[in-house]
TrEMBL record:
<protein>
    <recommendedName>
        <fullName>SGNH hydrolase-type esterase domain-containing protein</fullName>
    </recommendedName>
</protein>
<dbReference type="InterPro" id="IPR036514">
    <property type="entry name" value="SGNH_hydro_sf"/>
</dbReference>
């Protein structure tokens, strides 16, 4: 489970809270938050990535419970401007000048939301996977248009999923 489609069709609430989070918080203040209410706008994304994702998982597994579900957190966009269709959106988020701010927010939502889903689904092992540890925004060759994995980037993601499955499977 995972996705970055909130950037493609954001609601008014998502846009508002993203502007609050990116406009009024420093990377350091985001990183220090110990609860969703610790930074303006953060609670919206924690609810989205924790509660909405959990509901989605429950819907998918309502008939048959798998042994494991891997819940993936989005990866960091490419830090380099490449003439992508996404350059304008990333610029509006301040990513071109201070990528560490959005990266801090993604890390914090992973910590407070994605990791909180772990162990909350009876009979199914829920494993959080931070794709930002795989695609950290530093290597442009891992991306297409800054926001999609290239063949190499996708291969790294697939290998990481496989390693996560192996590490969490009892033989």
């Amino acid at each position: 489970v995972g996705g970055n489609d909130i950037a493609l069709r954001p609601t008014f609430s998502t846009i508002f809270n993203l502007l609050m989070l990116m406009g009024f918080q420093s990377p350091e203040s985001i990183g220090r938050c110990s609860s969703p209410g610790g930074a303006w706008g953060l609670s919206h994304f924690v609810r989205m990535f924790r509660d909405d994702t959990r509901r989605y998982i429950m819907k998918v597994i309502e008939r048959v419970r798998p042994a494991m579900v891997i819940v993936c957190m989005i990866y960091f966009p490419d830090e380099q401007k490449t003439g992508s269709w996404a350059d304008g959106t990333l610029a509006a988020l301040g990513y071109n000048g201070r990528p560490e701010k959005l990266q801090a927010a993604i890390r914090k939502v992973y910590e407070l939301a994605t990791c909180a889903i772990s162990g909350t689904i009876e009979g199914t092992l829920v494993v959080p996977l931070p794709f930002f540890a795989v695609l950290d925004g530093k290597d442009t060759s891992l991306y297409v248009d800054r926001v999609e994995p290239s063949g190499r980037g996708g291969e790294r993601m697939a290998r990481t999923i496989w390693e996560t499955i192996k590490a969490n499977t009892r033989t």
